[in-house]
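Crash report, auto-generated. Payload:
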Amino acid sequence: MQFGIFTVGDVTTDPTTGREPTEHERIKAMVTIAQKAEEVGLDVFATGEHHNRPFVPSSPTTMLGWIAARTERLILSTSTTLITTNDPVKIAEDYAMLQHLADGRVDLMMGRGNTGPVYPWFGQDIRQGIPLAIENYALLRRLWREDVVDWEGKFRTPLQGFTSTPRPLDGVPPFVWHGSIRSPEIAEQAAYYGDGFFANNIFWPKHHFRKLVNLYRERYAHYGHGTPEQAIVGLGGQVFMRRNSQDAVREFRPYFDNAPVYGHGPSLEEFTAETPLTVGSPQEVIEKTLTFRDTFGDYQRQLFLVDHAGLPLKTVLEQLDLLGEVVAVLREEFAKNRPADVPDAPTHASLVAQRDAKALEEVAQ
Amino acid sequence: MNTAVRHVPGQPGALRPVRLAVVAAGLSVPSSTRLLADRLAEATRGRLAADGHEVEVRVVELRDLAGDIANNLVTGFPSAALEEAVETVTGADGLIAVTPVFSASYSGLFKSFFDLIDNTALTGKPVLAAATGGTARHSLALEHALRPLFAYLRAIVVPTAVYAASEDWGGTGDALTDTLPTRIDRAAGELAELIGGRRGAPAPEAEAVVPFERQLAALRPE
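Recovered output after restart:
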């Protein structure tokens, strides 16, 4: 099982000091956080992609390329890559390039994006969000898998004799997850291709996501990729920890109460009861995270949001030290009673091995 | 999404009781809005019962959900209690919606509740719109505010909308005006007829998901 962090990349005022970091500080903080994630033993760092303030990460492969050069093991990912408003040709090229520079430590999570004006800013129509996600991704897959592509679709200039360069590392495209908050169509898309499905469950109650994940698992089996239990599931979560539970609650409450997403609505207590948010001791985070398996089944990737609500970098780095300890325990606990036929999340190495094994099998026949 | 299942599971053909949902947006306890809602519900139940229908009435008091409604607006998800209230409304065979008139329209709480319901979830649903107010001069709020709201939601609003001003609770009408009980009775009759006439027609079974080949095929250039 993989553990990691995902970041939204928001510039948010620290409500306890009134200080707002500059864009430069925030960008540098994000890459510092990524390096720290590797240092404390996490597997994955994923960045959001946004094209509006107060968010900074508009250019994920630039940021991930920088991180790739300064890390050794960390898998670099996105949360999410806007499959609707980005040109799929540019996604194919940018992420193949990143894959080479990072020696394969790359995967992506596709998402539609829910900021209305971004669609027209990039020449698209939000009412076509699902069809854009479906057509653009179908093209992206071909660009990575076929050397020469002829293409005609509804949304993009046709392609005649186009080759996306560089070709994917070792001829194996990056693994793709599809993130969704509410759309069964996206769960269906992930299942159809045998891709991963990431339920970004951090703001909503679990019973909602259980329906989406179960749909994905059933359809994954329907399309012949394996049993429902073998489908590739990722989950989110957000935490704030101190050694003593009360210290965590006391310190985080002003951040929660004023956070752009959580704030000025339900109380911290109500929100932690309904969503994955855990504010407390490392042991409490361990216990709550382990319950995710009871709700969603054995899964492959757990990403935590730790740099939220305007927390200063120093605090986030302390959180990562604690998260490293938590994850060490979670690895052991999640491994217990995990059925042997439930796979790990695909990596570049596993996908290359799978491709080679399949080729050998075909030769043998 | 309309999840109404019109047949009792496991008993093909057997009709379950009619589900009548009542939304009351009154703020005081007790409220004249709730009083009107109860009278409308009882009159509708009586009409349906006279036609041989068993009726299950469920009342949603928005006052009890005021905090949950505000929280849903800012977080995007409903509390368990609010979700149950929404399902009560979307799963009903008919709806009685009653609001006090504030500043020439429905109350903000009333509108906020309907803002949280999926905009296709009330399609085709029989609705009786009603309102209360201090003076009869606000009665056209029903026609200028509530009827367009439910028209947008593609619900079917019965012709008689019932407005109760304070004076109606003590008045007997006059030669030119129906009394409140008469209006309640007429509106209830219209709603009951609409609900009763639609009984037995099973709702089309919704697909959980459109198969992916079909989604892809829809995008192939002609």
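Post-recovery validation: Residues 2-364 of chain A form a domain with the TIM Barrel fold (CATH 3.20.20.30).
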